[in-house]
Amino acid sequence: MQQRIMSFNFRFLIIAITLLLSNSMFAQTDSISDPESSRLRRNVTDLFIQRGTPMGDNYIGNGLSGGLGFGIRTQAYLYKGLYIGAALSNDFMKVNDVDIVGNYDRATKFNAYLFAGYDYRFTDLWHVTGDIGIGYSQNKNRQTTAQGGAKFRDSGTLFRFTTSIEYEFTPAISVFASPSFEMVDYKIATAPALSNAFNSGNYFNVAIGIRISDNIASIDRLKRDIDRIEAIPEDQRGGVQRIRLKIYKKRLARRLARKN
After folding, report:
1. Which SS3 state, helix, strand or coil, does residue 256 take?
2. Model-level pTM?
3. pLDDT tens across 26-81, in order?
């Protein structure tokens, strides 16, 4: 059953990536007035897979082992690189020791949280981001048939710190790597002597994914980007540069047509 659930989730993620990429490549954002300079982001959507690692001297760190998970984040830019957003994720974990965590075999950790942070562009193609989030976390625990087949849940308040480093393939599509750290304040009814072991859990995650951006670019910026690529001899341009040049020229033509 768990394998079928994971198979369905990853098929859904692949379909979502395909649809969002198609929409991003053909979307037009020319109705927005050009800023005075440079390229500004309006909103961003992240699709990612990640590996989560339980940590700490508690029932999470001592009793569970991490596995692959996936998620989606979306954020809107308020002023320059300052943004706010929301995220959902699922992580699949196995039980290492039932004597520590209880009589179940596996757990799915679901997160839903809000966050705020800053996006710093340190070159034309590279970004780093950092944000702090707060929200809800729930471990959906499942027993095997031999254990009784029951399902039960542990929930708590999530605090999350997320960073990323990003490389732009085009103005609309980037890839990124993202380490993050989570602290969950669980609300689990236990004996007072066990409360320290069950009242919190920590997780360290490493994610990779695709970042899809909706940008505003000035005419001057587009012209500079085109000139920069065309200055490279045609036989020395890489595949990414050729794609960028086509996209920049199409956007510039639309901007000039609208302006005139």
Report:
1. helix
2. 0.66
3. 443 433 333 333 457 788 999 999 998 888 776 676 777 778 899 999 999 988 88
Over residues 222-260, the pLDDT tens digits come to 788 888 888 888 888 888 888 888 888 887 787 777 665
**Torsion-angle region of residue 3: left (phi > 0), alpha (psi -120 to 50) or beta?**
alpha
Strands 106-121 and 126-142: antiparallel
Q: What is the DSSP letter of 146?
A: T
At 137-184, the pLDDT tens digits run 888 877 666 766 667 777 788 999 999 999 988 778 899 999 999 988
Hey, which residues does 26 pair with through a beta bridge?
none
Instruction: Round to whole Å and give the CA distance between 178 and 51.
Output: 11
CA distance 173 to 121: 15
Task: Give the span between the Cα atoms of 217 and 53, in whole angstroms.
Answer: 39
**Distance between CA atoms of 259 and 253, rounded to whole angstroms?**
10
| DSSP-derived secondary structure letter, 147 | T
Backbone angles phi, psi at 139, to 5 degrees: -95, 115
Residues 138 and 108: their CA atoms lie apart, in Å, by 8
pLDDT of residue 6: 47
Phi, psi of 213 (to 5 degrees): -115, 145
Beta strand pairing call for 200-217 and 173-186: antiparallel
C-alpha separations of 241 from 29, 132, 225, 233, 246 in Å: 22, 34, 10, 11, 9
What phi and psi, each to the nearest 5 degrees, are found at residue 8?
-65, -45
Locate 42 and state its tokens: 């309006």
Quick check: helix, strand or coil at residue 29?
A: coil
